[in-house]
Amino acid sequence: MNNKAQLHTLEGLGAAVLMTLTILAITQSTMIVTPQNALAVDVQLEQMSSDALAVLDIASMASVQYNLTECIASWDMAEPTYPTGNLDNLDTALSYLLPGILYNVDLAYTKSGNLNVEKVIINGPPSTNAVVARRYVTLTNQTVNNMGGGWSLQDDELRVVEVRMTAWKV
Amino acid sequence: MMDEKGQIAVDFLLGISLFLIALTFTVQFIPGMFMSGTAGESSLDYTAYRTATVLVEDTGWWGNSTSSGTDWETQPSNMMRIGLAADDEPKSKLTNSPNLLSKAKIEQFMLVNENTLIENLGLYNNVDNTHFSYGYNISINQEGVPLVLNSTAIMRGKPTPLDREVSKITRVVLVETGTVAVLKGSELTGEIASEAIINVTGPFEENITIQIRNLNGANHSFLNAVVDNVTLTPSSDYTIYKKTGWTDLPLNGSLTSTDLICLNLDHNRFNLSQDYKLELRFSNVTLDPGPPFIRYNNHSSPLYEPAYLTVEVWQ
């Protein structure tokens, strides 16, 4: 028998559990992610960007000439050369909704098992506080043919395209 | 040497000191962990963001002991939540149409009692259970000026003060501003081949829009519009334009079959509860003979136009 101060196994375990619980209780109850002032600008920009894509997507034919799906369907599949994009109807619609904001638009889609990411609107290199907004559209051969695009889908084929917009303030 | 008293102290002291040091370190070096969410300017950011989100994405809700629904604009006294998002099925909780704002809801929003609005949208700071209202300004703007619905400019609250820090959130939305009938050229009929006849049943609160797509012809153009044998005056009674993107371009000269022709008619021309006969005269257009003629009211749907909803909040 050793009379010196010592923690026995069970007591040790008990102490460890108590400490862990205390830390958990503290962190769980007051852990609030506070947006810093610089973040508020990002929140606004992010909100505007995703709103612009959403609004363009849900707009009916009476509100806008071509909605997001139709704009994407009209793409001729050619890589643009800076500074001219090659999806003008999308560019016109977005620049109307986002005054004072610059953006690049990429399209991401899978074709025969490969992921393709293509640039369609290039407005220059994004600044450091750029944000990304995404929206998915589904293309059918009928939409593509109506819009005269170059997607060349089968009649029974659906293609889901991610519209990826990188937006930043100038 | 053997001592039976106070043996635990040294180990315990070491353990608890280590623990306290670790805890202090954690608290000091993880930013935001103990920062209160209700102090300072940042709570205004929350309030502005939350208010804009509730208004744009929520349909609102009303309820009493027997019934409930999202069409709170028809039941202002039983209103439980304010939200402006349009909803076709007021009895279901499932419809979700963020960014589409209903005209009826916006009009009712303008009539909601000031205190109810502040309570409902949480536009106050809660200090020891006493509510201090924030100053706020909520507006829907189109091309820089407040949108006008039913001759009311959509803006609530006070003018933004210049001497204080203001939190502002802007959302891009589609606002219901009136009605539109989208017609195909092939659907139009007339007694004369170049004259489309459309029956319109009044009255209307807002201007009505007729949109015609795929109107075929050779070097064809629009001549004029006639209501009940009275020729309308351009620009005061109606405007005609073609839609390109979101914007309206003036219609000059001849049309092509891909043009989206839009005719915006002044609602004062259709202000009685009766049938009106609207004739649209074109040249070089061959329409199918009628009757039957198109009835505007059977083809009309809400017209949504892009606008910006802005919420500004200050102490």
How would you portray this structure in words?
Chain A has 170 residues and is of the alpha+beta class. Chain A has one domain (38-169). Chain A contains five helices and four strands. Chain A has a four-stranded antiparallel sheet with strand order 2-1-4-3. The radius of gyration of chain A is 26 Å and the shape is elongated. Chain B is an alpha+beta fold. Chain B folds into two domains: 42-176 and 306-314, no CATH class; 179-304, Jelly Rolls. Helices cover 19% and strands 38% of the residues of chain B. Chain B contains five helices and 24 strands. In chain B, the strands form six sheets. In chain B, strands 4, 7, 8, 11, 12, 15, 18, 19, 20 and 24 form a ten-stranded mixed sheet that branches. Chain B is elongated, with a radius of gyration of 30 Å. The N and C termini of chain B lie far apart (69 Å). The interface between A and B is large, with 41 and 49 residues.
Outline of the structure:
The complex is a heterodimer of chains A (170) and B (315). With 170 residues, chain A is of the alpha+beta class.
Features:
heterodimer; A: 170 residues; alpha+beta; 5 helices; 4 strands; 39% helix; 24% strand; B: 315 residues; 2 domains; five-stranded mixed sheet; elongated
C-alpha geometry of chain B: elongated
Radius of gyration of chain B: 30 Å
Quote the beta fraction of chain B: 35-45%
Fraction of residues in H or I helices of chain B? 10-25%
Q: What is the subunit arrangement here?
A: heterodimer
Task: Summarize the topology.
The complex is a heterodimer of chains A (170) and B (315).
Chain A: H1 9-30, H2 37-58, H3 68-73, H4 88-97, E1 101-111, E2 114-121, E3 131-140, H5 141-147, E4 158-169
Chain B: H1 8-29, H2 42-57, E1 61-63, E2 68-69, E3 79-81, E4 100-101, H3 103-111, H4 114-121, E5 124-127, E6 130-133, E7 135-142, E8 145-146, E9 148-149, E10 152-153, E11 155-157, E12 167-184, E13 189-190, E14 195-201, E15 208-213, E16 221-227, E17 230-231, E18 238-244, E19 247-250, E20 261-265, E21 275-283, E22 288-289, E23 294-295, H5 296-299, E24 300-314
Parallel strand pairs in B: 4-12, 12-15, 13-22, 14-23
Antiparallel strand pairs in B: 1-2, 1-3, 5-6, 7-8, 7-11, 7-24, 9-10, 12-24, 14-21, 15-20, 16-17, 16-21, 18-19, 18-20
